[in-house]
Design goal:
Elements lengths: L1 H42 L6 H24 L6 H4 L4 H36 L12 H29 L5
């Protein structure tokens, strides 16, 4: 079982590391979209209606697919009032408890995201804007990001349990 857990942690961490690095550079795509929006409004006096929504969709991908990388690197927001002074063992106890809450929350989000994506695919749901893009692509990205974050949360739980058991993974 320990070998499976170590393999799981290694594979999930590696995949989320690569995805996180890719998403880090996708921020430039969002900048390019917003730059085009500004240029088209100033030079052509015709606003591009699609730019704001595309920038929002890019931000959703950046945030949700890059989120597991943030968790893996420990750069997520923490209340460090007491946490910084605790021992590694106490941190592992608290982290293992809070990651269980995160896993539950992500499970609920994934359930709702899959249901919403299914609805969007079934009925051809479109955004209620002038451009009216289909919503299923961004909802699929959302589900993928939540799923990867769920896998990373389980990886973090395994690492915390290993730290509590004083086992090297």
């Amino acid at each position: 079982m320990l070998k499976f857990a170590a393999t799981y942690v290694r594979v999930v961490d590696r995949v989320n590391y690569v995805l996180g690095r890719i998403m880090m550079y996708s921020l430039f795509a969002m900048i390019a979209i917003l730059l085009w929006s500004t240029i088209s409004k100033q030079m052509f006096v015709v606003p591009s209606f699609w730019t704001l929504e595309m920038a929002q969709f890019a931000l959703v991908a950046y945030y949700l697919v890059g989120g597991p990388y943030s968790i893996q690197m420990g750069s997520n927001v923490r209340m460090d009032l007491f946490y910084g002074e605790w021992t590694d063992r106490k941190k592992a106890w608290v982290d293992s408890f809070t990651v269980l809450l995160l896993i539950f929350y992500l499970g609920v989000l994934l359930y709702g995201g899959i249901d919403s994506t299914r609805y969007s695919l079934e009925y051809g749901e479109r955004a209620p804007t002038l451009w009216r893009p289909f919503l299923w692509p961004v909802k699929m990205v959302m589900c993928f990001g939540i799923f990867m974050m769920l896998l990373q949360a389980v990886s973090e739980l395994i690492k915390d349990i290993a730290k509590l058991r004083e086992v090297e993974i």
